[in-house]
């Protein structure tokens, strides 16, 4: 309950500019999704994962492409269509150092946790209903990705699923850091 | 596409016995907490109605899982753990939602949603196998997750959007645990639909 309360009471920085603020948030989320796609593509190199994990990773990479496309559309002229791996820099570094299948899969699970947290953060700064609803339709999918990856790692469910989603692992736009 | 006969989708929550959730399953925010809300409910009363309804659905899920645990239908380890974990989470969710309701000036709703429980009862009573339990739990978690998603954007207090999805995302995660015991896709779509 305390964790849930943290999610409730954590102060949210509000992007200025109403609708244009939402467009910037959507553009930021688009870059995060494209960064996730890039990380997945690195892991999908032949031989890095088992077949079941490869199948899941390929499906999830496609989901992230779809998320990026939807966010790009929501961002309108603010969309960049560009990957910004700096947003997930720590995870990219960890992926480079991962020397076995479990290590790579663990990084992907953390990517998904980061994405879920980022969408929860975004729900505190988005203003228009359209953007809020888009974020709310993506967040649960990222959470589900994390659980599937955790299961492939044989993580106990208690470890893979906290009682509340929180924003601790969120990446944030530079202007809101 | 309509769900298979006897299955649950969110519309069953919204249309119980042919009446809409605003007159049936939604729990009003009047001082005595018994008046049904309407679409004209002024905010933040509408916020309180959604919080009370969410708490009642969490209590429902916790009660349903508690009943299932007592039934002895969850002998398989995987589903037993999933049911127990989900029940514990739903209790936590209900506690949070009651607390937020109170802080918002509303009277917390402490019990399982009586209307939805009545609608569930025949199916709950008919459960006979572990796969049937898994199927019901899978559908219940999806309905809960989609219900939270549907609340987003409707709150006058915008911080409640985060509250809703701090819980709603977890319900979607629960669904994966039950999907794993069924012949169901764990993450069937790129976007969760309501």
The assembly state of the depicted protein chains is heterodimer
Share of residues in helices of chain A: 55-70%
N- to C-terminal distance of chain A: 26 Å
Task: Estimate the global geometry of chain A from the Cα principal axes.
Answer: globular
- Helix percentage range of chain B: 55-70%
Report the β-strand fraction of chain B as a percent range. under 5%
First and last CA, distance of chain B = 13 Å
Low-confidence segments of chain A, given as residue ranges, are 8-18
Cα-atom Rg of chain B, whole angstroms? 16 Å
H/E order of the elements of chain B?
HEEHHHHH
How would you describe this structure in keywords?
heterodimer, A: 177 residues, mainly alpha, globular, B: 194 residues, two-stranded antiparallel ribbon
Topology:
The complex is a heterodimer of chains A (177) and B (194).
Chain A: H1 2-9, H2 19-43, H3 51-75, H4 89-97, H5 101-122, H6 129-152, H7 157-160
Helix pairs in contact in A: 2-3, 2-5, 3-6, 4-5, 5-6
Chain B: H1 10-14, E1 15-16, E2 19-20, H2 45-71, H3 77-103, H4 114-126, H5 130-151, H6 159-179
Antiparallel strand pairs in B: 1-2
Helix pairs in contact in B: 2-3, 2-4, 2-5, 3-6, 5-6
Structural account:
The complex is a heterodimer of chains A (177) and B (194). Chain A is mainly alpha-helical. Chain A has seven helices and no strands. In chain A, helix 3 packs antiparallel against helix 6 (129-152). Residues 8-18 of chain A have low confidence and may be disordered. By secondary structure, chain B is mainly α. In chain B, 59% of the residues lie in helices and 2% in strands. Chain B has a two-stranded antiparallel sheet with strand order 1-2. In chain B, helix 2 (45-71) packs antiparallel against helix 3, helix 2 (45-71) runs antiparallel to helix 5 and helix 5 packs antiparallel against helix 6 (159-179). The longest helix of chain B is centred in the first third of the chain and has 27 residues, at 45-71.
